[in-house]
Amino acid sequence: MNSKLKYSESHPLKAGLINEKLLSKQEFIKKFEEFPWEKLLEEQLNANDENIHNSPSLNIENNEETGISVSIVGELDNYEFYVCYKRPMTRKKKKWFGLIEYDYYDKDFCSIITEQTKNDGLEAFLYFYDRNLEKLEERW
């Protein structure tokens, strides 16, 4: 499948997203492999807290604003990746001290799974490119 998805990067010392454009799956794989994960993490760790805007991350999104983000966090000798899967979902909500439960539509539901590897992150992106949403939902 040669569809293109909206791509962006988050860098610790830059306030906004950069490189926002459409990428094919093969273009994205190359970006993912060449992304300076450890270098940007080191930059973040050496910066003053007030200068940090976010963790080093790669993000892809489709036209429905469903997407995957992968971030690196931790120390240079002990880091992990987070996989965030954003999608609309109907969820249960309680009110009146838990006596009433009802369904509501959360258009921006995001699951955040910690303790992932770099390969886990790439796998999440590839499932998203391949539209294997069942596998994404099962895993993240």
Report the strand count: 6
Strand order of the largest sheet: 2-1-3-4-5-6
Percent of residues in helices: 25-40%
Strand content: 35-45%
Textual characterization of the structure:
By secondary structure, the chain is α+β, with helices and mostly antiparallel strands. The protein has one domain. The chain has helices at 25-34, 37-46, 118-129, 133-139; strands at residues 5-10, 18-23, 57-61, 67-75, 78-95, 100-116. Strands 2-1-3-4-5-6 form a six-stranded antiparallel β-sheet. The relative contact order is 0.18. The model has no long low-confidence stretch (mean pLDDT 89).
Record keyword descriptors for this entry.
140 residues, alpha+beta, 6 strands
Topology:
Blueprint lengths: L4 E6 L7 E6 L1 H10 L2 H10 L10 E5 L5 E9 L2 E18 L4 E17 L1 H12 L3 H7 L1
Antiparallel strand pairs: 1-2, 1-3, 3-4, 4-5, 5-6
Short description:
With 140 residues, the protein is of the alpha+beta class. It contains 4 helices and 6 strands.
